[in-house]
Amino acid sequence: MEMKRIDRSQKVRVGFHEAKWDEAIIYELSKPGERGILVPKADKKVVDAVGNGVSMLPKGLRRKQAVNLPELSQNHVLRHYMRLSQETLGADVNIEIGQGTCTMKYSPKINEQLARGIFDLHPEQDPSTAQGIMEIFHETDKYMQEISGMSRFTFQPGGGSQGLFTMGSIVKAYMNSKGETRDEFITTIYSHPSDAAAPALKGYKIIYLQPDPKTGVPDLEAFKAVCTERTAGFIQANPEDTGLYNSNIAKFVKYAHKMGALCCYDQANGNAVLGVARAKEAGFDMCHFNLHKTFSTPHGCGGPACGATGVRAGLEEFLPAPLIDFDGKKYFFNYKFENKKFGVHKVRAYYGVAPVVLKTYCWIRSLGPNGLYQVTKTAVLNNNYMFKKMLEIPGISAFYITDDNQRVEQCRYTMEKIYKDTGVSTTDIQRRMMDFGMHYWTSHHPFFLPEPITLEPTESPSKEDIDEYVNTLKYVFKECYDNPEYVKSAPHSSTTHQVDESVMDDPKKWATSWKVYLRKYK
Amino acid sequence: MRGFPNHPYIPDSDPKIQKEMLKKIGMTSLDQLHHDIPNSIKMHKELNIPEAFDSEYALQRHVEGLLNKNTTCKENLNFLGAGCWQHYVPALCDDINSRGEFLTGYGGEPYNELGRFQSLFEYASMMAELVGMDVVNVPTMDWAQAAATTARMAQRYTGRPEVIVPELLDPDKLNIMYNYCEPDVTFVQVKCDKQGLIDLKDLAAKITDKTAGVYFENPGYLGQLEVNAQKISDMAHKAGALSLVGVDPITLGVVAPPSDYGADIVCGDLQPLGIHMNYGGGQAGFMATRDEERFVMEFPSRLFGIAPTSKAGEYGFGDVAYDRTSFGHLREKAKEYVGTQTALWGITAGVYLATMGPRGMEEVGQTMMQNAQYAVRKLNEIHGVKANSLGGAFVKEFVVDFTATKKTVAKINKALLAKHIFGGKDLSKIFPTLGQSALYCVTEIHTCEDIDRLAAALAEVTR
Questions:
Q1: A378 and B12 in contact by Cβ < 8 A?
Q2: Which residues in chain B have Cβ-Cβ distances shorter than 8 Å to A119?
Q3: Domain for residue A419, yes or no?
Q4: Which of residues 211-230 of A touch B (CB under 8 A)?
Q5: From CA A190, how far away is CA A269, in angstroms rounded?
Q6: What is the ipTM of this complex?
Q7: Which among A326, A298, A360, A354 has a CA at the least distance from the CA of A121?
Q8: Interior CA angle at A248 toward A242 and A252, to 5°?
Q9: From 3.40.640.10, 1.10.260.40, 3.30.70.2860, 3.50.50.60, which CATH number describes the B91-352 domain?
Q10: In whole angstroms, what is the distance from residue A291 CA to residue A357 CA?
């Protein structure tokens, strides 16, 4: 056959199929007798001196049977996990726009390489032997201070939600120190569920602030109506997950302060405002950043991560300890700042996820002050470009549209019209988009808005990437009208077919491990 | 224009492309973006942080320069443990967890991220076997977080407010538990005897009808194996409370799983299972229970379950009882909260257990025990040094009492450091009743020669 120039005019990957290995569960691959690694044995001199070692185990504490683990030779373990990795759509392999709120930007490989340099550091080795990593913590703290205007940061929180929990804990500690018994926390319905769930765990009653139906953000009067002398804290993301920025934020904060409450800025959406606006100027008392989002460290299928949490001057004593400080000659662990009676003391082991802090340091140093600003401006440009293109798709709208509307770094759209026309829902589209190698996210639960779609392009995709994503969506929306059943029964080119989720809520049928599966399914 | 004409991490930083995109949205300048942010709270100056390195190479040189100021546990001989332990990390663990697909996966669905769901299901399956339970969570932050959630689960399960904990517990862990559990759980400390074991008389006095659970660790923070584990569980059960057990999972190839002695909820840290110490960044907590609805419904974490799909003979996965979690419809009325935690370390622990297999886990347990016992024997030959001063059974960690040498642990460790040895964790401040004692950790990575070197150095510096 004569070879012709490849035709790339088709902008949608209709030929895509995700890797599908039909890979068995690892227990099914087990072959008794195989082994994956040779383990170090005690030296002869040791054995001669102490014997088999395990005879020291007291009666009742000796394991009776070998652990029921699979037995595989090393190459088989590798092959199994290589296949599973290929069946995972990480940010490295797709146009990462579909996981709105998650800031799925590029995680530079050089930072991964450099982070291997701290594999073998023990967190309690003498500080004189860890000055390099301590300097990185201290410098990153300073960068975070400048980016937010806050006074000090802790890197202990191991994720965004733990950062929110840390802020809730700081509010509680502060109120306790003042002898205050305030029992309410205000948040908005479009903030992350943990903005409600984390303060609730500290015993606070959650007050939800409703948005103005026109603007999509709560107005000052609504805020005043709920902010009282019972309010301990106010916490919200800004922009919220709708991509709308609440212009009244400084007024909210001012009023909350007047009422004696503390204000916490959930900066999970920090990619929207680097070098553009800071927590400090809006008056916030504290904030947190997700280093695994805004600051590029990889998401790791859900951590390890860091929710770096900072406070304004005057609240440092409530941060968990230690902080890492520099005395002019050396870096040291500072426990002296801590309020021994009321402070939070500790939220995570040691000083936090050190490799994440190191990668953040590297990323900031790769971009500098103007680069960070450019990250934000480009992410917002990408999003508004996409916003414009999305609204050109028939049947697609966004919530809270006005004449001069723009969005910040992400946007929540609706396909309500398409749903009404065709019966195809946003969760159907989610599965169908996987047939093109793309993520697509709806919204946190409950869906406050009908048939939502939340997309966040970040600064990482190019204009062509955004065009491809939008073209693919367009293609799928057209399918909703032409062949709705096909979309509803998606995915067709992913790793598995539609999961029967009915077993997930049935205690007789659910199986969270292989042994339970074998027990329940003979 | 501020920034780079073409930054490698920002494809659309090309001014030509930006102009084209701005045109599409009816703008002429990037300044027109962010119009909802009032001028009064906008930043009107550049961030005061260092300028960017002008090449990837320059960044590498700089960071490597910083890291060269550290000296690692490989360049030195390390005996620190106490919650973060040096074990051998099989090459497969790093190879798999640095695969871009896993490294940069996140919150996708069981279709496009099947591998993430399956590998975490398998991790849970293997951990369940190791600890003798049925249900294991997608991992949380660290052991302390897992212990705190264990306490809260017990509180909700029993409807009682108190959890009993041993007085010999990592103080950092206890602080984390206090902060996480107030105001719903009150911790009551039970005394420990000279061997570091729970004082059963004091326990009997402290267990009441308010007790939700008795939490203890096996081995304990000071390495001691709790020989009365079954009795403690029985006492808890008799009072209608739960037995809550923290474990170091790498010991369980030789040590009995907590299910053998009555545990209801098991927790611990995954770090020993194929995860580097990472300066304390390798911690990951797990909880485990039996497959009983009342326990399952108290987990705040995600639990991945296996499920049929629309195609016969095919596996799929999903979230078991999703509305338990704060990601579900109940938000703050769900169990605690959930978010990004340590999933990649869960995958890694799974790779570790699959690589080690039953024999590997048994062998690593035995090697640790042999090496640690040899170390105790060698250190006890030194005048004034009392190794395993608590006197009971242990696996890889033991207390060394230097009081009789009339030297402080701080001074001894400083002298060891000069010989490129990291001595054990100084306990003199956190547990003053133990005198000048340190917690030593000896694992499968130590050779006979390493231990002899430690003994010789200690003999010299305590002289």
A1: yes
A2: 72, 89, 276-278
A3: yes
A4: none
A5: 12
A6: 0.98
A7: A354
A8: 110
A9: 3.40.640.10
A10: 8
Please name the residues between 428 and 487 in chain A that touch chain B, using a CB distance below 8 Å: 430-431, 434, 437, 439, 441, 444-446, 459-463, 465
What CA–CA distance (Å, rounded) separates B381 from A49? 13
Structural tokens at position A203: 């015993």
| CATH number, span B77-87+364-461 | 3.90.1150.10
Query: Is A398 found in the same domain as A352?
Result: no
Give the 3-state secondary structure of residue A9.
Answer: coil
Cβ–Cβ pairs < 8 A, chains A and B: 734
- Taking the Cβ of residue B440 and every Cβ of chain A, the question of whether any pair is shorter than 8 Å is answered with no
User: Among partner residues B36, B47, B115, which is closest to A147 by beta-carbon distance?
Assistant: B47
DSSP string, A301-321: TT-S--EEEEE-TT-GGGS-S
pTM flag (> 0.90): yes
Contact map slice: B 188-217 vs A, CB within 8 A: none
Please give the helix or strand (H or E) that residue A398 lies within, else none. strand A397-398
To the nearest whole angstrom, how far is the Cα of A56 from the nearest Cα of chain B?
Answer: 6
B224 vs A: CB within 8 A = no
Same domain, A307 and A357: yes
pLDDT tens for chain B, residues 1 to 463: 688 989 999 999 999 999 999 999 999 999 999 999 999 999 999 999 999 999 999 999 999 999 999 999 999 999 999 999 999 999 999 999 999 999 999 999 999 999 999 999 999 999 999 999 999 999 999 999 999 999 999 999 999 999 999 999 999 999 999 999 999 999 999 999 999 999 999 999 999 999 999 999 999 999 999 999 999 999 999 999 999 999 999 999 999 999 999 999 999 999 999 999 999 999 999 999 999 999 999 999 999 999 999 999 899 999 999 999 999 999 999 999 999 999 999 999 999 999 999 999 999 999 999 999 999 999 999 999 999 999 999 999 999 999 999 999 999 999 999 999 999 999 999 999 999 999 999 999 999 999 999 999 999 999 9
Question: How long, in residues, is chain B?
Answer: 463
Quote the tokens at residue A86. Answer: 């290929």
Q: Looking at the structure, tell me whether residues A354 and A409 fall in a common domain.
A: no
